Amino acid sequence: MRLLLFGMLFIASTACKPKTTSTVQENTASIQEKMEEKTPMSKQDLEGYETAYFASGCFWCVEAIYESVKGVKEVYSGYSGGPEENPTYEDVAYGRTGHAEAVEVYYDPNVISFTELVQVFFGSHDPTSLNRQGPDRGAQYRSIAFYKSDKEREIITKYMEALEASNVYGRPIVTQVVPFEKFYIAEAYHQDYERRNPNNSYIRNVSIPRLNRFKANFNTYLKDESH
């Protein structure tokens, strides 16, 4: 019984979700100083790069994974997949909207293709887990591959069919494949959250291990860390 209770408390303490409104405000204030050091990339900086959108659990984890991929210039954490305008982190995290935590990936198609980004997507989370990734539960953590064109939709669906035909996961894939409509960038303190908060319990126990598993399986897709 004690072991079960400890496990429940551990999961609760390492969830990608605010505990209370006051906690969110405190975290925002403490992290804001760090964010002042970061100069956001302008649209001019990102001209010439393509964009791709994915949702596969806590965006702190997903952002860090795509940031490690060669050819990726910038990644933003945010919200997508729902009808509500201007969603907030607290509303999304508590399942009060139809949005999922998602990422916006700016990439150089001459270095990394959309097909390879889709491979990264399916290879870095469990696409058979309905409305859940790790300790995070709820539709806001569902698996979604967004497409902006018929070509992208075809790439996603064909890759899913190949995974299913090979029975890679041993269970049916539940990833949603939906047209991209709008991406709402998350609050400033969420950007580069993993890199800026390495001692956070969720980052240590969930996010970093997930990133390391991805790196071990996709080492040829990684940026040269010496640069």
**Biggest beta-sheet profile:** 6 strands, mixed
Tell me the radius of gyration. Answer: 17 Å
Number of domains: 1
Count, helices: 8
Helix fraction, binned, reads 25-40%
CATH architecture: 2-Layer Sandwich
Keywords: Oxidoreductase
GO molecular function: peptide-methionine (S)-S-oxide reductase activity
Enzyme class: oxidoreductase
Catalytic activity: L-methionyl-[protein] + [thioredoxin]-disulfide + H2O = L-methionyl-(S)-S-oxide-[protein] + [thioredoxin]-dithiol; [thioredoxin]-disulfide + L-methionine + H2O = L-methionine (S)-S-oxide + [thioredoxin]-dithiol
Task: Describe this structure as you would to a colleague.
- Keywords: Oxidoreductase.
- Has an important function as a repair enzyme for proteins that have been inactivated by oxidation. Catalyzes the reversible oxidation-reduction of methionine sulfoxide in proteins to methionine.
- This is Peptide methionine sulfoxide reductase MsrA.
- The structure is a single chain.
- The chain is α+β, with helices and mostly antiparallel strands and 227 residues long.
- It has one domain: 2-Layer Sandwich (Peptide Methionine Sulfoxide Reductase, Chain A), CATH 3.30.1060.10.
- It is built from 8 helices and 8 strands, in the order ααβαβαβαβββαββαα.
- The strands form 2 sheets. It has a 6-stranded mixed beta sheet with strand order 7-6-1-3-2-8. A two-stranded antiparallel sheet has the order 4-5.
- A hairpin with a 2-residue loop joins strand 4 and strand 5.
- Helix 3 crosses helix 8.
- The longest helix is centred in the C-terminal third of the chain and has 17 residues.
- The N terminus is likely disordered.
